Amino acid sequence: MDFFKPILNLVWGFAGVNDTVRLKRQHPPENIEENYDIPYLSDGLRGHLLDVYVPQSAGGKKLPVIVDVHGGGWMYGYKEINRPYCLALAEKGFIVVNINYRLCGGKDRVHLADQLQDCFAAFSWVRENIAVYGGDTGNMFLTGDSAGGNLTCLSAAVCANEKLAQIAGIPAPGQLFRAYGATSPMIDFTQKSPLTVSNRQVVFGADYKNDLFYKTFANFAKIAGKELAPFYLVTSNGDFLQEQGKQCYAVLLTNGVDVKFHNWTKNNQQHVFSVIEPFKGPGQIIIEEMTRFFKSKMVVEAEV
């Protein structure tokens, strides 16, 4: 862990510079009511805050809800890096909840199990409170990109399997979400690649080989069952996780899960392109396609 951590910190330091430049030049829509820094746990940690975005056009009408989990290699970023993307989703007629979670790699030794528990604490807050903002708890959806895509996949498995919830230290939640959207997800830490080797100890801990959580959740293929709710997946030719995205599609297809897969092959679009550039053509197309997929899975479509 000590060997890889400085390298990963350097990588994510560069990512932070790029995100700062990107966010300054982007101009998100202004027709969305933004509610910032709401604690979903009362411990005062930045990692336990969320934002709620409500379309001003809602007019008191109950709207479906998207919860978004940002990426960043499990050790970088907060909800702010996904704000433009979440506002673009809200423009499609959804109340969007943009969540933080604690990051790996720090002195408090947060691991993936802690992050998954954070996500479910946020989901619990949403289920209990989103109606105040006009959200429909009967039509909730979960999205995530890269590391957030990994957390999205694991969340889907936990929602479908009480035994997995028990191993993760999470009260059995049941099927919270009508469907999931995973952008450039990482699904398999067991592969022998520089990416997985460098992240394994940071994400699961130094003694990961003896850890039940690692043995259970390191490879999504081993926990993905036919009980999973529908999935929308996206990757691209310029995505360094493209093969993992393809594997995720194959896993879901093999298990009989309702899945729509978009492997973007034009113009060599980069990793999580629809998240970092939601107002450009390719990103707009993916967002339209994914939100249309979500609406098709709603209990009542007439309200959207």
Describe the overall structure.
With 304 residues, the chain is an alpha/beta fold. It has one domain (4-296): Alpha/Beta hydrolase fold, catalytic domain (Rossmann fold), CATH 3.40.50.1820. The chain is built from 10 helices and 8 strands. It has helices spanning 4-25, 83-90, 112-129, 147-160, 162-168, 194-204, 212-217, 242-254, 273-276, 281-296; strands at residues 32-39, 49-55, 63-69, 95-99, 135-145, 179-183, 231-236, 259-264. It has an 8-stranded mixed β-sheet with strand order 1-2-4-3-5-6-7-8, with helices on both faces. Strand 3 (63-69), helix 2 and strand 4 (95-99) form a beta-alpha-beta unit. Helix 4 packs across helix 5 (162-168). The longest helix has 22 residues, at 4-25. The mean pLDDT is 94. Keywords: Hydrolase. InterPro entries: AB_hydrolase_fold, BD-FAE-like_dom, GDXG_lipolytic_enzyme. One of its GO terms (molecular function) is hydrolase activity.
Write a short abstract of this structure:
This protein has 304 residues and is α/β, with parallel strands linked by helices. The protein has helices at residues 4-25, 83-90, 112-129, 147-160, 162-168, 194-204, 212-217, 242-254, 273-276, 281-296; strands at 32-39, 49-55, 63-69, 95-99, 135-145, 179-183, 231-236, 259-264.
Assign the structural class, choosing from mainly alpha, mainly beta, alpha/beta, alpha+beta, or little secondary structure.
Answer: alpha/beta
CATH superfamily: Alpha/Beta hydrolase fold, catalytic domain
Mean pLDDT, all residues: 94
Largest sheet strand order? 1-2-4-3-5-6-7-8
- Uncertain parts: none
Q: Please trace the helix and strand order, writing H or E for each element.
A: HEEEHEHEHHEHHEHEHH
Q: What is the CATH topology classification name?
A: Rossmann fold
Q: Strand share of the residues?
A: 15-25%
- Would you report the number of β strands? 8
Terminus-to-terminus distance: 48 Å
- The whole-angstrom Rg is 18 Å
CATH class: Alpha Beta
State the share of residues found in helices, binned by percent. Answer: 25-40%
CATH architecture: 3-Layer(aba) Sandwich
Count of distinct structural domains? 1
| Biggest sheet features | 8 strands, mixed
Dominant shape: globular
